[in-house]
Structure to design on (279 residues):
């Protein structure tokens, strides 16, 4: 489905690109002929990932330590990345999250998440958008959100607030910056297990068991499935998609939403009784 030079000559910046899904995206872009710059807070992780991918794909990965909560640092890094080679796209992948009862949170806990998810994503998008518009170059922003950006979710409230804002930013700027050649889209992944997210969000076996059972497809997502969607949305094949959020969750959020979905607990006998086959 994907030609091997789909992203040849293109360069993308991935926040949180040193580990988890961000690392997977970097690898998929390299496989398809593109180049990446990865950034994140942990220098050693970035370096290790860059070394690994550069060994596998040739010299395609640059890395820059960055905490996206710091707007001056964001500008500095985006300047440095542009000086290496102007970008074709930005992937807002970095996030912060943990599972907690909201009434136990301090204002610092609220800030810790919202400053990454909302402010950091906004700083990155602004810094890149300004350059694309000033240079009159096309740009492509892909933000990783989640289905609770629109449903909301208990126990991850700062994250839900931040992700909802990122979705609003995506839809707003798609219209404002579309005429200037910059398009913005989002992906709402369901459960794609990674070490970082699962340590924080699925800390007990009791929670882990539920993921697969409640999903209409009976499983969590495979990373390659998500990476293929990322590749499509970055490529020119999707050039007319703008301001959209694509959900890839096996139908998980709809399973939690439909009013009569709970009827899946009924047995064949129950259905026979309801339909009048059983007297
Ligand atoms: C309550 C907590 C907490 C927890 C931290 N805090 N963890 N409060 N429950 N589990 C509070 C601290 O007590 C502190 O408040 C404040 O938050 C700041 O904590 P720090 O550890 O100093 O913050 P920091 O080092 O900046 O770390 C940020 C972080 C951390 C968000 C808290 O989890 C992080 O770095 N995460 C990055 C990676 C990540 O989260 N990945 C998962 C994303 S998954 P006080 O008042 O004590 O000072 C995702 C997808 C969702 O978003 C969809 C999945 C299906």
């Amino acid at each position: 489905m994907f030609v091997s030079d789909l992203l040849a000559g293109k360069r993308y910046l991935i926040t949180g690109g040193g580990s988890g899904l961000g690392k997977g995206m970097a690898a998929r872009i390299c496989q398809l002929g593109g180049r990446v710059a990865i950034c994140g807070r942990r220098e050693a992780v970035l370096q290790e990932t860059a070394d690994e991918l550069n060994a596998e794909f040739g010299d395609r990965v640059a890395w820059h330590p960055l905490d996206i909560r710091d707007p001056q640092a964001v500008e500095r890094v985006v300047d440095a990345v542009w000086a290496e080679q102007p970008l074709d796209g930005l992937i807002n992948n970095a996030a912060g999250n943990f599972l907690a009862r909201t009434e136990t949170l301090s204002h610092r806990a609220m800030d810790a998440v919202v400053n990454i998810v909302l402010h950091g994503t906004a700083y990155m998008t602004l810094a890149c958008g300004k350059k694309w518009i000033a240079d009159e170059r096309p740009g492509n922003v892909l933000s990783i959100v989640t289905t609770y950006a629109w449903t909301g979710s208990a126990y991850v409230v700062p994250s839900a607030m931040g992700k909802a804002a990122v979705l609003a930013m995506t839809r707003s700027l798609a219209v404002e910056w579309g005429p200037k050649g910059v398009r913005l889209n989002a992906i709402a992944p369901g459960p794609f297990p990674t070490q970082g997210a699962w340590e924080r969000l699925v800390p007990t076996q009791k929670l882990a068991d539920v993921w697969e059972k409640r999903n209409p497809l009976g499983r969590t997502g495979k990373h390659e499935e998500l990476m293929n969607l990322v590749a499509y949305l970055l490529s020119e094949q999707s050039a007319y998609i703008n301001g959209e959020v694509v959900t890839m969750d096996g139908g998980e959020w709809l399973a939690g939403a439909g009013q009569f979905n709970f009827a899946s607990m009924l047995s064949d006998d129950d259905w026979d009784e309801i339909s009048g086959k059983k007297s």
